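Quick review question:
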């Protein structure tokens, strides 16, 4: 079986941070308003300490929605590929509260992907440490590790990456889990 690494945030679930930020600020931002991978950058500097405290007291995975078709397609892929869910969990703005983040991620994955053995969840920071045949991630940076096929899952922060850059970095853009299903199950790469 080919080893397939699947990222979690903005690939399996989405919109948690932005919903939380809107609740905290009383705003109506959309993820694309951040214009960066880190939607946290929408928080004004003078509210930052308060925001970190707010984040610490809540579970961002109570705010997410599952990405359309993700569990159904992952369950099908799981019969054909050796799947690992690979996710970075260190909270950039206050690393010492990341233990909660790890627990919240673990609980979300066990609940929403019950067909994946929890032994196949990988919590880390540097995804390049893990080799694979195929990688799926919404972050160009996190697709740097070895793989014969790298799928860039479309998200607010990578929409503007053009064909040329994709080609140069050997990335294939996918816009949905249905596209992934087609590529990995019907075309049998
Ligand atoms: Mg991600």
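Suggested answer, residue by residue:
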């Amino acid at each position: 079986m080919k080893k397939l690494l699947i990222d979690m945030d903005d690939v399996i679930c989405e919109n948690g941070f932005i919903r939380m930020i809107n609740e905290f600020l009383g705003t109506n931002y959309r993820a694309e308003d951040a214009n960066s991978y880190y939607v946290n950058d929408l928080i004004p500097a003078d509210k930052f300490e308060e925001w970190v405290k707010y984040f610490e007291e809540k579970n961002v995975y109570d705010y997410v929605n599952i990405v359309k078709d993700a569990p159904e397609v992952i369950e099908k892929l799981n019969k054909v590929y050796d799947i690992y869910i690979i996710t970075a969990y260190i909270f950039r703005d206050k690393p010492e509260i990341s233990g909660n983040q790890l627990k919240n991620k673990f609980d979300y994955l066990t609940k929403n992907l019950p067909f994946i053995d929890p032994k196949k969840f990988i919590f880390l920071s540097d995804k390049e440490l893990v080799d694979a045949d195929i990688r799926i991630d919404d972050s160009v940076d996190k697709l740097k590790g070895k793989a014969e096929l790298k799928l860039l899952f479309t998200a607010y922060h990578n929409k503007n990456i053009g064909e040329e850059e994709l080609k140069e970095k050997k990335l294939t853009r996918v816009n949905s889990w249905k596209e992934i299903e087609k590529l990995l199950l019907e075309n049998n790469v």
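Why it works: The helical segments are 16-25, 48-57, 70-77, 98-112, 163-168, 177-186. Residues 16-61 form one domain.
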